[in-house]
Structure formats: structure tokens, C-alpha cells
Amino acid sequence: MKFGYFDDERSEYVITTPRTPLPWINYLGSEDLFALCSNTAGGYSFYRDARLRRITRYRYNNSPLDSDGFHVYIRDGDTVWNPGWQPVQTEPDFYRCRHGLGYTVIEGKKNGVAVRQELFVPKGDNCLLMRVRVSNEGADEKALKVFPYVEFCLWDAMDDSSNFQRNFSTGEVEIDGAAIYHKTEYRERRNHYAVFWADRQPDGFDTSREAFMGVYGGPARPEAVFSGGCTGSVAHGWQPVAAQQFNLTLAPGAAEELIFGLGYIENPQDEKWEALGVINKTRAKAMMARYADGAAFDAALRTLSEHWKGLLSSYRASTGDEKLDRMVNVWNQYQCMVTFNMSRSASYFESGMGRGMGFRDSCQDLLGFVHMIPERARERILDIAATQFPDGSAYHQYQPLTKKGNLDVGSGFNDDPLWLIAGTCAYIAETGDFGILDELVPFDNDESLAEPLLEHLRRSFNYTRTHLGPHGLPLTGRADWNDCLNLNCFSEHPGESFQITGPSEGPVAESVFIAGMFVKYGSVWARLCRALGREEEAADAERSVEKMTAVTLDAGWDGEWFRRAYDAFGHVVGGKECEEGQIFIEPQGMCVMAGIGKEDGRAELALKSVRERLDTEYGIVLQQPPYRRYHLELGEISSYPPGYKENAGIFCHNNPWIVCAEAELGHGDRAFEVYRRTCPAYLEDISEIHRTEPYVYSQMVAGKDAPTFGEAKNSWLTGTAAWTFVSVSQAILGIKPELEGLRIDPCVPSDLKSFTVTRRWRGAVYVITVSDPEGRQKGVRELIVDGERLEGNVIPARPEGSVVKVTAVLG
Ligand code: BGC
Ligand code: NOJ
Question: Which residues are bridge partners to 743 per DSSP?
Fold first, then answer.
């Protein structure tokens, strides 16, 4: 069942009923101020850090779901309604929500009144703008009351939801004309406040939640709206809010537009006050003046739309498959940008109070956005590398505000170092900027330990090859990519962290997955050394890679697939002898992507085993059979009920590894089948089962062992976004930026006879047309670049500014 449709012309997803299976959200903002906005105008906002600078409050785990947000109440006679249906839930005569690139438009109609609510965060400014257009489409005059409402958070979201003995006494506001200022804690240690404003004087206001809602009222039945109107309350402690009332009289056919803003302002220490206790509003007033009328609002919206057009023009495919095109050209790249902005912090599943930036997560996210914003990818790489330890290991997480490694979690996740090679080399392949390798970057944020970035990569590589276990495979540490496979931790008590309980380093537990990574990214490291003219170092790296390949084919091979690991006792994880967890997806994907077993047929066999043992109609599950009892020696993976999360859920992040692996072996039909099964646009028709947004990936879909097989969770903030973009843009459509040039190496389904990709790369634009007349799926038979035939399939970079015409024939 569908709950909307894609409007490809406008790059929007249009939702036609407010009763979506879960709130379907959008992200507004791409610099410092962000808002999450659902299809019913639920959501919240923050400045930079979702925990420390929360502007509006949100109750995640609420019933009914999603009743806090940016709501507008309409009172028309005795009828009270919201254009987005929530929170009053009066049945509308018409409803529509358009989620577009950085903006959301919600439209509702009731009893001849139409309301359109548009929300976005303008480029270069710290405010959320909202325009509400109210029109009378009926035959009689209407006397309406319109009430916008937001509830402030007392800044630190964690403290806000726990420290009530203090918080109920600290809230402060100021009211000045059409603006309501939220200034809690401004008198002492803060230099920032929030402001909600309207473009005209309201007919009433409230700033105390209790006064507006009633003590026992609530978002679904605010007392002020249902009875006599706003009361002019001034909040002292308790819960500061911004509510306003506008009385509109509309003749038939008449309409009014109101513009609102929710801004975040910082003042320098010596400019905080206008008078004792009166905040300096100069900057806030300047902000309001920037959006004083509809023309300014429209201009800011146009700038935003140009911005997105620019970003998305770096990679555009035209394949004839509308689902494929809309995912590749719009939604997958859009989600990659959201993961760049948010990492894993704030969504409807991530509270914004938990994890900081992940070392491995951020390096992988980079693979999906580097082509759109290379300069910001560069900064990100340098930030990440600065949290590496001198021995090459890494803090697993770091804080976005301080950019310092997070001591609570520490290091010991032994896949982390290699992801830095993956991210940096992807950046250089994209930009040709080898100069980044000369940048001096601290270790452990200590400037005195700074070394060129190249040295950081070298230490990543060396860390892995010097931390090997009894079989010669890399030691796993606290966990490798799979955070829930905790082979050294042995957590027995509720509430303990599965990952950081117990010793971080066992001398025995080894990871076949990291071995695959070492072969894949170690080869990239060797190529980088060679490109820099460091022949000896390249050859030395290659010898280590060869050795690891041999070890993987020996201790890492189970007969029909790659093993997953060895536990702290040296027992196999992910092998035939295991009663549960016999085969895992991760090493099959990573080892085959690395080319291990390609020559002797073992790679083929491993992927055949994946197909036979892990495939389902909704994607490939992480492992089989699921763990049905808790395995102390394996950790969190066996804490989930069968079919969920890492315990045999369809973990979408590593499905694209199989896509890349299948493409590596030339299986275009199969690669595309795996791609399609988890791709949201192809799941739109089963939204009642899938439940999350049909325009973005979710981290996890319940596997076949779960009672809710096919149900997705944790949409938006997942490494799936970047990896699926890599798999479809580079492995299937086959346009691969490499250190040496742009490789054209598609592996397509046999019924895709031709397609075109327009790709911006190193300052030039490549218009690449690929045809596969005989359905061969892979192998470039002929490559013509600007009219000339090229040997091989790697195009050396052309001068900046050129438009390069490329045709490739497969066969
Ligand atoms: C989840 C993992 C996640 C980890 C982060 C676990 O509970 O299952 O998916 O990576 O937490 O710490
Ligand atoms: C989510 C985490 O963010 C990621 O780092 C990890 O690889 C996966 N879960 C798998 O456990």
C-alpha cells in the first residue's frame, strides 16, 4: 500500500494521508541550525549540537507519536484543526505534505478554509522560517483564529529531560511586540537565546505552557484554542513556550499570508544586555528584517533550491528506470548529505543525546558525499585523523563541538584505522588533491604530535599488520564493523556496555572481516604509495597484502564461505561447526570486494552460499541461523531477539557490499536484484509492511526469523546511504573515480541496454553513454573519448572546465 508518490519533476515526495505507518520526516537546514520536520509538522530544532543546543523540545517515545513540533491551530467556529492533522486530529477535507530538498510544505483544508504551511531553514542564517497562507475558498465570510505554537527546550536536551528540580524554576522569557524571546540561563553562563516572531502584531500570546494548554490539557486539546483564546501569560519557570493568536476575517476568495521565524542568536559577552535584565535584541531584529515579506521568503527559498540543484548536478543518471533514476539522482544523494550533517546524532530513532561522531561511520559516510562537497570532506578527514592515536589505533567516537576523541568509549575497535585509508583515498580519487597528504595533523588532538596525513595512513596500515592473532588474522579488539560481535568483552550484568566491558584486547580473538578490509584497503594504500613514487613501500605493502590473502584463504575459509572470526578461545565464529551463526554476510562482501578467492572460484562459492543461505525477498540477512540464546563469548549480537538488528536482521549497510562483490564477479543481474530489494523506491508499494519513509534507507529491516519480517527501523542516519550510493553509482553504473583516472566499468542487469551518466569530476564534466546491446552485463569492449578510441577503461583527468563526451560499449 502506498501513502503518497514521488514527484520527480520537483524532487519531492508527496504524502497524501497524514496517517503514515510512522511519522515520515524531512531534514531542514544544512549548516548550523537544523530542524527535523514530519509530515504532520511534528519535530524539533537545534543549533549545531542536538544535545547541547536544543531549541525546541521533543518527546520521542510518546503516545500518540509525534505530537511536539511546529504546529499551527486553526479555530473556525467550533471546529479546531491543524493543516497537518496532528495534534488535534480533526479529519481534514484535504491533506497533502510535500517533502522536498531542505523544505516541507503541508496543506490542509477544512470547511472551505485552505491552509498551506511552508517550512525551511534559509542558507547562511540561523533560523527556521514558516509561512502560513490561509485562504477562504467558501462562499461565506470567515472569522478565523490562527495559533502558531512551539515549546522551548532548556538547551541541554539531556538535562532538560531529567533535572526537573532545577529546570522548573529557571525558565525565562521576554515579550517584545510580535516577538517572544526564550532566554533561560542567558543571565549567567549562556550568550545565546532563541526567538519566535511573527511579521505582524498578534492579537494575543502565551509563553507559559500551562496557560496555553491547561495543566491537564495537551497538544491535542490546548485550552486557549478551545476556549477563550490566548491569555497573555508570561512564563516564570515551568515550561516556556511561544504561542500567538491572530484573528483573521476573510471574505470569500480572500487569503492572508503570515510569516513566522524561530531564530537562534548569539551575542558577544560585552553586548549581552540592553538594560539590566533586558536582552540585546539587535541581532534578532536584523534577522527578522531579513525575512520581512513574502518576496524575501521566496528569494531565500530560491537560493536553497539553487544550492541543492548544484549539489545534485555532480552525478546524474538517466537509465529509463524511473525508480532507479530518482534514487540515484535525488534521494540517495540527499540522504548522504543528511548523514554528513548529522552523523548518527539526531533522528526519530537517535535522540541526539547519545553517540557523537563515529570514526568508522564518518569515514564511510564520506564515500557518499565527497563528490558533492569535496572541500568539506577534506575538513572532515583532517578532523577525524586528528583523533587517531600515535600507534595508529583510533578513538571510536569524537564530539562534534570539541572535535576531541571520546574517552568513555575509547579505542580498540580494530576496523577503525583502515576506514581512514578508505575515506582519504576516496577523497584523493575524487579531487586529485594529493596535497592533503602533506597536511600536518595531530595525533590524539595533541599539536606537538602532529605529522603529515600520509603518516596517519601509514600507521593505520601498520597498526593492522602488527596486531595479528594466532592464525595471522587481524585481532578484533572490542568489535570490528559489527559493533555487536563483542569477542573480548563478556558482559554479564544488565546495564553494562556490551562493547566496553572487559578488556579491549584479547590476544586471540581475530576478525576475518578486518582481514578482508586489509586486503582491500591495503591494496589501495599500496597504489597510493606507488602514485607518490614510493615504489619500495608499495612493494612492501603488497607483500603484506598477499600474505593476508593467503591467511584468509586458509584460516578464514570454511569450505563454502568465509568464516567470520575466531573468538577469545580460538573457536570459529561463522563456520559449519557452529550451531547458531554459521554464516555471516560481512566477510563474504568484504573479502570478495577485495578480490580474495576470485581466481580459484572461492569468491563465486562464497556468494553462492550467501544466495542460498542468507537471501530473503526483502534483502540479505546478516547471519544464519540466528542466535536463540545469549552467548557470553559473542556479546550483544545474541542479545537481540532473532531477526532483529545484528542478530539476523537485514542490516541494510552490508547489502551493498554484496552488490559490489557480485559486480566484481560480473553478475549484473544478481547485483541489481540485491540493490533493488533494499532500495526504498522499489518498496513504496509495501509501505504498510516496511513502515519507514519510502524515500530513504533504514538501518535495519526485520529478517525472516522475526515475527515482523519486512518491517524497517532506524531510518535516515545509517552507513547504508553512502554504501548504496557507492554500489549503484560505481559498481552497477560503473563510474569509478580512482587515483589514476576515471574508470568506466559498469556491471548492469542484462535488460539495461543503455544509459547515460553525467558526472562532474575534477572540475570537468563527463557525459558518459554506455550501451550493452547483447546483454553481456560487464566488460568494456570499446571506449571512445571525445571521438578518439582509448585503450583500457581508465580516462585520465581532462582539463578543468571541459565537457568530455564518452561512449562505452560492453561485451
Ligand atoms: C546497535 C548497533 C550500534 C551500536 C552503537 C548497538 O546497540 O545494535 O547497531 O552500532 O549499538 O554503539
Ligand atoms: C551502527 C553503527 O553506527 C556502525 O558503526 C556499525 O558498523 C553498525 N551499527 C553495525 O553494528
Answer: 736, 794
Instruction: Find out whether 771 and 751 touch, Cβ atoms under 8 Å.
Output: no
Cα-flanking dihedrals φ and ψ of residue 588, to 5°? -65, -45
Query: Using 50, 70 and 90 to split pLDDT, how confident is the model at 722?
Result: very high
Ligand nearest 653 Cα, by number?
2
Residue 533 alpha carbon to ligand 2 centre in Å: 36
Q: Which residue among 361, 498, 644 has the greatest number of ligand 2 atoms within 8 angstroms of its CB, and so is best to mutate? A: 361
Over residues 38-66, the pLDDT tens digits come to 999 999 999 999 999 999 999 999 999 99
Determine contact, residues 54/44, Cβ cutoff 8 Å.
yes
Residue type, 339: T
Ligand 2 touching residue 360 (CB < 6 A) = yes
Cβ 344 under 6 angstroms from ligand 2:
yes
The CA 482 to ligand 2 mean position distance, Å, reads: 6
Cell of 700: 535495519
How many angstroms separate the alpha carbon of residue 482 from the centre of ligand 1? 8
* Cα distance between residue 159 and residue 153, in whole Å: 10
The pLDDT tens digits for 63-101 are 999 999 999 999 999 999 999 999 999 999 999 999 999
Question: Ligand 2 pocket, 96 CB below 6 A?
Answer: no
Is the CB of 745 inside a 6 Å radius of any atom of ligand 2? Answer: no
CA distances, 461 to each of 136, 365, 515, 524 (Å): 67, 20, 12, 11
Q: Please work out whether the CB of residue 359 comes within 6 Å of at least one atom of ligand 2.
A: no
Ligand 1, CB within 6 Å, residue ranges: 483-484, 636, 645-646
Half-sphere exposure at residue 156, Cβ-oriented, CA atoms within 13 angstroms? 11
pLDDT tens digits, residue range 700-713? 999 999 999 999 99
What does DSSP assign to residue 91?
A: P
Cα separation, 429 vs 414, in Å, equals 25
State pLDDT tens for residues 623-638.
999 999 999 999 999 9
What is the structure's pLDDT at 354?
Answer: 83
Residue 32 designated active-site: no
Nearest CA to ligand 1 atom 2: 483
Residues near 750 by beta carbon (within 8 Å), at least 6 away in sequence: 668, 669, 772, 775, 776, 777
Residue 113 to residue 83: CA distance in whole angstroms: 10
CA separation for the pair 482, 442 (Å, rounded):
28
Judge if pTM exceeds 0.85.
Answer: yes
Q: Please pick, among 483, 705, 745, 772, the residue that the annotation labels catalytic.
A: 483
Q: What is the DSSP string of 596-626?
A: TTTTTTHHHHHHHHHHHHHEETTEE-SEESP
Average pLDDT for the chain: 97
Task: Give the Å distance between the CA of 699 and the centre of ligand 2.
Answer: 9
Q: Which atom of ligand 1 has the smallest separation from the CA of 646? A: 8
